[in-house]
Amino acid sequence: MADQNQQLNEVLAKVIKSSNCQDAISKGLHEVLRTIEAKQALFVCVAEDCDQGNYVKLVKALCAKNEIKYVSVPKRASLGEYLGHFTANAKGEIKKVKGCSSLAIRKYAPEITEDEKKIIEGALKA
């Protein structure tokens, strides 16, 4: 199970980083909700440790209403790190990460393989 979670996290990081470079990500509550309502999201990532419980409930409920699947990520810092929202020291070590509570993937980047898409799709919840 831990190996599957690690593999999912690695693939999710790759998908988020590459989609972010392709400008195929919506982040922040307003953008994410707008993307969900327009049914433009392939899937949504939601951080479970968001300090606003209603935020997570709202995103999940809107996903269900619009038939868009989501994947839960344990920490906001992980999503922030995948997006590149961090500062690093001279050695390249991450010092401070700006968290992200949710993001929506609008399209996969070309470098994402079918196997990687299957790994993501296996973890998605309705």
UniProtKB/TrEMBL annotation:
Matches recorded under Gene3D superfamilies: 3.30.1330.30
Native organism taxonomy: Eukaryota, Sar, Alveolata, Ciliophora, Intramacronucleata
Keyword line: Ribonucleoprotein, Ribosomal protein
InterPro entries noted in UniProt: Ribosomal_eL30-like_sf, Ribosomal_eL8/eL30/eS12/Gad45, Ribosomal_eL8/Nhp2
Keyword Ribonucleoprotein: yes
Species, as recorded: Tetrahymena thermophila (strain SB210)
UniProt family annotation: Belongs to the eukaryotic ribosomal protein eL8 family.
Identification of the protein by name: 40S ribosomal protein S12
Boundaries of every Ribosomal protein eL8/eL30/eS12/Gadd45 domain copy: 12-103
Entry GO terms, CC: ribonucleoprotein complex; ribosome
